[in-house]
Structure formats: structure tokens, C-alpha cells
Amino acid sequence: MKIDPEGRTLGGITGFLAFVALNVMYIVSCVPVVTIPAATSALYEVTIRYSDDESGRPVADYFPAFTRNFPRATLLGLSLLVPFVMLAFSTAFWAASPEPLAIGAVIISAAGAVYVFAAFLHAMALVAKFRNGFRQTLKNALLLPAAEPVRTFGILIIPITVVAITVIFPLFWVIVLTVAFSVGAYGTAFLFRSVYARYDAAPVDEDRLGPPQD
What we know:
disordered C terminus, transmembrane, membrane, DUF624, Putative membrane protein YesL, mainly alpha, transmembrane helix
């Protein structure tokens, strides 16, 4: 019997194990909490690259990407996650209020929280894909949810679905701990690539994300 190392079955098993390892690496690197932005950016970097005809080495490239992206990702994460937490707290506060007008505050706060969280995800992917400065990356991240609402909805629905299923079915934690983050990031990688394909910026050479080409 001869085993073909390039065979589909073996390749599928190898790929699955790589995603399991990547998922564990991501969870471990998120434990300090403050490293969540850098870890998310690194996860996006390796999965965006891998989604392009399976190029790159997701496991081997993860920690170099984490180290490289840490300064920008952390600063952007603080700039966006702090407002997100404040808006989420405001949503919960007004939702518990008996005031008749509280429903309006709930809607505004919730919409703001969702928008800022979407901007955070875009920011982490922009750090992963481009080498722009802090101000330009933040500007692009805040503009993209409005400029790309359909794709942004797809980017948001994956983590929201994972959280919702985990709350409803606690056994889903097994999936979360094994492949949920890595596979979810791989799925959103195609959406991020489709967003960036509409813009004329090069990954390294351009200083900003250019306007969509007609």
C-alpha cells in the first residue's frame, strides 16, 4: 500500500488539524485580554492569505504576524473596543429602564455598538492586509461598514451566530474550543478579500485605501 502525501484525504486531515492548532493558538493568545486585537489581526492575516489558493502556512505564520501587528492592532483595538463596551453597557442600562423613551435609547445604543464592533473587525483585517498608519486605518475602518453594508453583515453574522449557538447549546463550546474561531475567520477572509478587491490600494506600497473603481 502506498500513501500519497498529496492525497485529498490526508490533505483534508492535515488542513483540519492545522485549523484546530490555529484555533487553540488564537484562544491562548487572547487570554491576557489586551492582546485580543493583535491576536485577531494575526488570525485574519493568516486566514486571508490561506484563502487565496491555500497560500502561506497558517500555523507557522501566526505568531510572526501577531508580533508584527501588535502595536497598530492594540492601539486600534483600544480606540474601538472601549467605545463598543460603553455603547453595549448603555444598551443594557436603557433596556432595564422603565422609562417610556428608553426604547429609543436602546435602539440607538445597540446600533452604535454593532457599527463600532463592525469597524473593529474591519480595522483588524486592515492591519492584517495593509501597512497603513493608525489614522488612515481607523478612518477606513469607520467608513467601510457604511460603504460595504452587505459584506459587513456577512462579516458580523459569523461571530454573532457562534455566540448565539453557544448560548443556546452549551455543548457547542467543544466546537468553539477546537475550530470555531479559525474556521469562522477563514470564512470571513473571503468577504474581506472581496471588499479589498474593489479598491485600488496595494497591500504595502499605498498609504491609503483608494476609492472603488468603476
